[in-house]
Amino acid sequence: MTTDAAHDNVYTKARGGERGIMIVRRLWTVVLALRLRASPGAAVHAPWRCTSLRAAVLALSLCQPLQAAVVVSSKLSSESAMIGHMIRLLLDAHGIATVDRMTLGATPVVRKALLSGEIDLYVEYTGNAGFFFNLPDDPAWKDLQRGYELGKRLDYQANRIVWLTPARASNAWALAVRSDIARSQKLATMSDFGRWVREGGHVVLACSAEFANAGTLRSLQRTYGFKLTSDQLIVLAGGETAATIAAAAASTNGTNTAMVYGTDGGIVAANLVTLEDDRHDQPIYAPVPIMREAALSANPQVRDIVKPLMESFDADTLRRLNARVQIDGEAAQAVAADYLKSHGWLR
Length: 347
Known about the structure:
The protein is α/β, with parallel strands linked by helices and 347 residues long. The protein folds into three domains: 3-61, no CATH class; 70-170 and 286-342, D-Maltodextrin-Binding Protein, domain 2, CATH 3.40.190.10; 173-274, D-Maltodextrin-Binding Protein, domain 2, CATH 3.40.190. It contains 17 helices and ten strands. The strands form three sheets. Strands 7-6-8-5-9 form a five-stranded mixed sheet. Strands 3-10-4 form a three-stranded antiparallel sheet. It has a two-stranded parallel ribbon with strand order 1-2. Helix 4 links the parallel strand 1 and strand 2 (98-101). The two termini are 42 Å apart.
């Protein structure tokens, strides 16, 4: 079954209620118009009703297909949901009907839903295309523009999925240090961090077992010419970035450096400084809305509606927005609406 055929099948089942209401309304419009043609005061007999109903159904069969609402979804992360809500609210504001399917599931779930036509649009991350297309070691993923262009081409050729404008930010793994340490040691980049370690700096890094053992730390050490001993590592069970950030903020067991994701909201609240990956060791994971070609063809203005929103994001902006959801406990939809209003995109 093609993607479009799958979408039509899902549309019939999942959106049948909405479509049915619209069809009934249009059907009654045709029936009323036919009744007005009858002679004033004439009795309405069963054969007339039957004939006019047949005429109404025939008229509807000649109409253009009804345009479906755009189903906007997201992954489980607060960032994915927040940007998804922004896109959905913008489409609504421009008169494009939408269906809210936020926080549908993890990446495999949302990806499958898009390819099957169950949803029409969600926010992906550029570097994930390396895994989608079994090209994780392609150096293109370490450059935002090259990775975007490669993922855009591969996804369109294979699935007729269109990549819209990406954000100029990356949610890849990174290191963040306490701001007091960053100031005193003049740390802004990973090259600076490597120099600090080589000079005998007192570094204590909190990270996950995956980060420490699966190759990420080794790759950073190789690229930036430093080596951390086991005494300089605190490997946390589970290793969520909220825990590593909290350890650095509180100087737990001397921790002054944390494994983070580049746009973590906790970085702002903990007053940490994210170190720039200036030699491009890690893949770039830039947020990018991706959309089914069939849905975009029905609503071509979506491309231009989304563009200024995504261009407004950089890493600092996303960290501040994420902090409102992850730290302050605000609802993702409320933060989304407030951001749009602050830019004059929503009343």
